[in-house]
Amino acid sequence: MLKVPDVGKSIKAFTGIKQAKDEPYMHFIDRLETAIDKQVENDAAKEALLPKLAIEDANLDCQKVLHHGPWWIPARLVRPVLNHPAVTEAESRGSQQHIDVDDANDALE
After folding, report:
1. What is the pTM assigned to this prediction?
2. Residue 44 neighbours by CB distance under 10 Å
3. Nearest CA to 62 among 28, 17, 13, 15?
4. Per-residue pLDDT at 51 exceeds 50
5. Do 35 and 11 form a contact (C-beta atoms < 8 A)?
6. CB–CB of 67/52 below 8 Å?
């Protein structure tokens, strides 16, 4: 059953959630995951949507790292990859900076 939103609180559709240029990826994932949990009833659909939208709706810097990995990333692997030093370092430098993709891909191994 879908959850009823809190009174007076609007919920943005999960399809409209995009990572801001300066937003930490983990914050984006938390927002996306919360919205999907509140708006999607089917567990299999939730598991399929999160990794797909986590890549498609990420900002350009994060997409550079994520697109050089496998074409799919299971939800259980998203968080460890994001905590990898190559990703956190890129976030600390700000948007549009070079990310060492090989280092980030090491987190998947």
Report:
1. 0.57
2. 8
3. 28
4. yes
5. yes
6. no
